[in-house]
User: Fold DUF983 domain-containing protein from Sphingobacterium zhuxiongii.
Amino acid sequence: MSVSKIQAVISSKCPRCRTGKMFTGTAYGLSRQKMHDHCPHCGFKFEIEPGYFYAAMYVSYALSVGEVLCMALLTAMITKSESPWMYIGVLFTTILIFAPFNYRYSRLILLHYLSPKVSYNPKYAALKK
Ligand SMILES: [Zn+2]
Assistant:
C-alpha cells in the first residue's frame, strides 16, 4: 500500500515512512495536540537538528497571510463594510481559529516539501512493529 505525499500530509504522517502519525490527537480535539519526538512506526527523529522547527514559522506565516487575505476579501464581499474594526475583529478571530491548523500543517509542509534531507523510503513503511 503506497501513500502519496499529499495524502501523508493531510493525514499527518511521518515523511520517511508515511505510516506513523506525527501528532497525538487531532488539530481541533478537546485534548491538546502534541508532536511525537520520534515516529512511532520507524523511529525517525522529526526535529532533524536543534531548533529545526523555527523554519516552520515562515511556513506558518505564509499560511496565515493566505487565510487572512481570503477572510478579508470574503468579509469585504459579504458585508461591504468600511469599518476597520470589522476587519480587525474578523482577522483576529481568523488567526486564532487557524492557529492549531497552522501549527500542525506548517511542520508537516516543512518536513514533507521543504527539507531536502528527508525523503520517503518504502523500506521503512514495510517495517513491522
Ligand atoms: Zn516514520
Summary: The mean pLDDT is 93. Residues 16 and 119 are 6 Å apart (CA to CA). The longest helix spans residues 84-113.
